[in-house]
């Protein structure tokens, strides 16, 4: 549901607050880097998958530190991914032998 505070913000402030330009720039860079692969299934599908990965928090996997540091959402996504991979260390004192934890 939309909050009244969100509706009170001008468009450009809302977009800046959510770092939309950062994600659009990254999406276009990823698109250009992978244009051969993308020609197989289309640009619309690429953008759909890119922004789904942003929502799921998987967009930070195998990315450089500057990208992870760029937005609060990226940092939180990294911490969630890190925790999912290494939470057994805190519980057991050593990493579990099960590779499915990461």
Automatic annotation (TrEMBL):
<keyword id="KW-0597">Phosphoprotein</keyword>
<comment type="similarity">
    <text>Belongs to the CSTPP1 family.</text>
</comment>
<keyword id="KW-0493">Microtubule</keyword>
<dbReference type="InterPro" id="IPR038968">
    <property type="entry name" value="CSTPP1"/>
</dbReference>
<keyword id="KW-0963">Cytoplasm</keyword>
<dbReference type="GO" id="GO:0005874">
    <property type="term" value="C:microtubule"/>
</dbReference>
<protein>
    <recommendedName>
        <fullName>Centriolar satellite-associated tubulin polyglutamylase complex regulator 1</fullName>
    </recommendedName>
</protein>
<comment type="function">
    <text>Regulator of the tubulin polyglutamylase complex (TPGC) that controls cytoskeletal organization, nuclear shape, and cilium disassembly by balancing microtubule and actin assembly. Regulates the assembly and stability of the TPGC and thereby modulates polyglutamylation of the microtubule, which antagonizes MAP4 binding.</text>
</comment>
<keyword id="KW-0206">Cytoskeleton</keyword>
<comment type="subunit">
    <text>Interacts with PCM1. Interacts with TTLL1, TPGS1, TPGS2 and LRRC49; the interactions link CSTPP1 to the complex TPGC. Binds to alpha-tubulin.</text>
</comment>
<dbReference type="GO" id="GO:0034451">
    <property type="term" value="C:centriolar satellite"/>
</dbReference>
């Amino acid at each position: 549901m939309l909050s009244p505070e969100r509706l009170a913000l001008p468009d450009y402030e809302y977009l800046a607050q959510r770092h939309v330009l950062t994600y659009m720039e990254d999406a276009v860079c990823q698109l250009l880097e992978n244009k051969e692969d993308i020609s197989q299934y289309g640009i619309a599908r690429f953008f759909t998958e890119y922004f789904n990965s942003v929502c799921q928090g998987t967009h930070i996997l195998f990315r450089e530190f500057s990208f992870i540091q760029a937005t609060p959402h990226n940092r939180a996504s990294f911490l969630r991914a890190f925790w999912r991979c290494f939470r057994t260390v805190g519980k057991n004192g050593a990493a579990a032998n099960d590779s499915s934890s990461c």
